[in-house]
Design goal:
The complex is a heterodimer of chains A (about 200) and B (about 500).
Chain A lengths: L11 H9 L3 H22 L3 H17 L10 H21 L18 H8 L3 H10 L2 H12 L4 H8 L3 H30 L1
Chain B lengths: L9 H12 L7 H9 L9 H38 L24 H10 L15 E6 L2 E4 L8 H12 L7 E5 L30 H10 L2 E5 L5 H6 L2 H8 L14 E3 L17 E5 L15 E16 L7 E5 L9 E11 L2 E25 L9 E27 L4 E12 L4 E15 L4 E12 L3 E2 L5 E16 L5
Antiparallel strand pairs in B: 1-2, 1-3, 4-6, 5-6, 7-9, 7-16, 8-10, 9-10, 10-11, 11-12, 12-13, 13-14, 14-16, 15-16
The chains are: A mainly alpha (about 200), B alpha+beta (about 500).
């Protein structure tokens, strides 16, 4: 017991058990443990920071409401992330998709996807990748996140998004082409800028 | 095999996962508060409860201490009074304030009684057969003569009777009217026996200078009868003299018990020749007095300080900060007002206090977002611009702390200045703040025991505070206008 009765939780299991017992300090510690990473996940999926915060809030309320269902406390990291991702997907279905307007990205002529472009895309830093993600259409961004960052395969993505697997594949394919287009544009821009 | 199964984007996936593996965005404090306040069952225990509980504990402890000390001093005072009045010791505690023209005449109880009779001092006296000076014990609703046992010396008898007759809730008034010095009885007392008569030991005329130290010491309080009243006292009947001229002094035993001892001139004929040696009334304070003149039960103080803070804020230069253009536009405005409540004790010129309260951080700053938009310009049609938004926040920063300071009286005691330090802990952000604290107080009498101090307090934080996201550095400079209530200060 520390100053002001602030109990320290030595292990993740203790922390989860404290949350399951609705201990306010455990809940706060649990929240502080995941807040940064999970809001980062939400930012990747959302169009704006305000949307990300909405997803984040909804996800954490779900986490604390359903934490009793967590059988293995040691797997809380992946469980929390799964809850956040599912919340982001639900938010997309509930809010984003009705507002979705496929833009003229469909009409963008696909540049040849060379290995150079892939290498170039793989060399982007975090901030640049976030910029590219933000420029993607909502459904493409969702698929790219799920496939490239979360590591789901197309079948799982299809299940999560309730779409056919072929649709998931084609969406990712188009999203990748679009990313390469951005990279190509950025390369041209960079070439023009640097001479 | 389908070409998709080969996962041709493995390189891309690996890089993206590495890039976003440590990607974190700290939520705003308002968002965190909103979430934590909406948690299913466990509403977050607010730190203000701790602060209120601490204050209540402090007040209860102070009250218990005062009550306990009062009880103890009530018991001790009876001994202290007698011991301090010993004729063989002239200490500051037992300072003799009773000038009598016949003070040096040793008188036996019998002689004292004789003189009393010869001078016809009979007013309000209930002379017993064995006491030289009449005494009266007046208790509200009860009036009992104080009679010494024949075998016991006067003062011892007085004390014995006092102990017997006093209850804590009784008010006992012991009035002695005589024209002889009570000191005369002390020669027969035992060496360590407490004696009352030493109170009239001084030979020199009393002056204000004589009175003030004793008055400030709080042990012996004297009320001097003006010289122009003396002839009337002498010429009038002694009954009237004892009733009207002898000021009432109270020697309290216990919390509300008072004992008054009045000495009269022994020789009325000398009044004209020695006008300064006039009847005075000596009383013994109920309190045991510390060396510095401050009664232990009157060491406390409590003050409330509304604080207005000026906070010089800046974004941390070396952090992965999303903040820019930090401003504190509302310095010293009502939006920045917090408060601090202090309670503590004084030891001589030093005072230690515990404090609780809260500061307010009022600022606005620009937060850069992880969003970009294309803003074509003639030079670059794909110019990426990072989006940003401005946040104005007004955040409460609860704090508890402790401090030590020294005070001095200035301007003939009208002002008190204090300088010290304070250590504060901010539970919400788990940070500490060490600050210098200084103030100027104007002392105003509130009652005969209490005084009020209006103060201007300045605190300067020696270390920085960080915001919840640790992206904003705060350098607090706090100004407050406080009100303090405490027992009247004696000049240390």
């Amino acid at each position: 017991m520390a100053l002001f009765g602030r109990k320290s939780y030595q292990t993740l299991t203790e922390l989860v058990l404290g949350c399951q017992q609705r201990q306010p300090r455990a809940q706060r510690a649990f929240y502080e443990r995941y807040q940064g990473r999970m809001l980062g996940v939400c930012v990747r999926y959302a169009r704006t920071v305000a949307e990300a915060e909405d997803i984040f809030q909804e996800a954490f309320l779900k986490v604390f409401t359903h934490i009793d269902e967590l059988i293995k406390p040691e797997s809380a990291d992946s469980w929390v992330k799964a809850v956040v991702v599912r919340t982001a997907i639900n938010y997309y279905h509930r809010t984003t998709r009705p507002q979705e307007h496929l833009t003229s990205y469909e009409a963008i002529s696909e540049p040849p996807a060379s290995d150079d472009h892939l290498q170039l895309l793989a060399g982007y830093d975090q901030e640049a990748l976030l910029g590219l993600l933000a420029r993607l259409p909502d459904d493409y961004r969702l698929v790219v996140n799920l496939y490239l960052v979360e590591g789901y395969n197309h079948a799982e993505i299809a299940t999560l998004l309730k779409i056919p697997e072929a649709t998931a594949r084609s969406r990712f394919s188009r999203a990748r082409q679009l990313l390469l287009t951005f990279v190509n544009q950025h390369g041209i821009q960079r070439h023009e800028f640097l001479g | 095999m389908n070409s998709w199964d080969d996962d041709p984007d493995e390189l891309l996936r690996r890089h993206w996962q590495q890039a976003f593996d440590d990607f974190e965005v700290q939520p705003r404090s308002s968002l965190s508060r909103r979430i934590l306040n909406q948690l299913p069952a466990g509403r977050r225990r607010r730190p203000i409860r701790w602060l209120v509980a601490g204050l209540l504990l402090l007040m209860t402890a102070g009250l218990l201490y005062q009550v306990r000390f009062s009880e103890r001093s009530g018991t001790k005072d009876k001994n202290n009074i007698a011991q301090s009045a010993s004729p063989h010791r002239s200490t500051s505690k037992s300072r003799v304030l009773q000038p009598t023209t016949s003070a040096e005449r040793p008188l036996s109880p019998a002689l004292a009684r004789t003189n009393s009779r010869s001078d016809e001092v009979t007013a309000s006296q209930r002379p017993t057969t064995r006491r030289p000076s009449a005494s009266r014990i007046e208790t509200p609703g009860v009036s009992a003569p104080l009679v010494a046992s024949p075998q016991v010396e006067t003062e011892a008898g007085f004390l014995a009777q006092t102990r017997k007759l006093t209850k804590r809730t009784d008010k006992i008034e012991f009035v002695t009217t005589s024209n002889v010095a009570l000191r005369s009885e002390t020669r027969k007392t035992r060496r360590n026996a407490p004696t009352l008569t030493s109170l009239s030991r001084s030979k020199s005329p009393r002056t204000t200078a004589d009175r003030s130290p004793a008055t400030s010491s709080g042990l012996v309080r004297s009320e001097r009868v003006e010289p122009d009243q003396a002839p009337r006292e002498v010429s009038a009947s002694q009954d009237a003299l004892s009733d009207s001229q002898v000021a009432t002094n109270y020697l309290s035993v216990g919390t509300s018990q008072f004992l008054r001892i009045a000495g009269l001139l022994s020789l009325p004929g000398q009044l004209g020749a020695l006008p300064a040696q006039l009847p005075v009334t000596d009383s013994v304070s109920r309190y045991r007095v510390e060396d510095n003149g401050v009664r232990p039960t009157q060491r406390w103080f409590i003050d409330a300080v509304p604080l207005s803070s000026f906070q010089w804020m800046s974004a941390l230069p070396a952090s992965a900060s999303y903040l820019s253009q930090v401003h504190a536009p509302a310095a010293f405005s009502p939006a920045t007002w917090g408060y601090q409540v202090n309670g503590g004790v004084r030891f001589g010129r030093w005072q230690a206090h515990l404090s609780m309260g809260q500061l307010r951080r009022w600022a606005y700053y620009t937060v850069n977002e992880n969003r970009y938009r294309v803003e074509p310009n003639p030079a670059n049609p794909y110019h990426l611009v990072r989006e940003a938004h401005t946040v104005a926040e007004n955040v409460a920063l609860p704090m508890v702390g402790a401090g030590l300071s020294q005070y001095r009286l200035l301007g003939q005691g009208r002002y008190a200045i204090e300088l010290g330090g304070q250590f504060s802990y901010l539970p919400t952000s788990r940070q500490t703040l060490l600050g210098l604290r200084g103030g100027v107080n104007r002392r105003l009498p509130l009652s005969h025991r209490l005084e009020l101090q209006a103060s201007v307090v300045i605190e300067y934080g020696l270390n920085r505070l960080l915001s919840e996201q640790r992206q904003l550095a705060i350098h607090p400079v706090v100004v407050g206008f406080g009100v303090r209530i405490q027992p009247r200060l004696e000049k240390p």
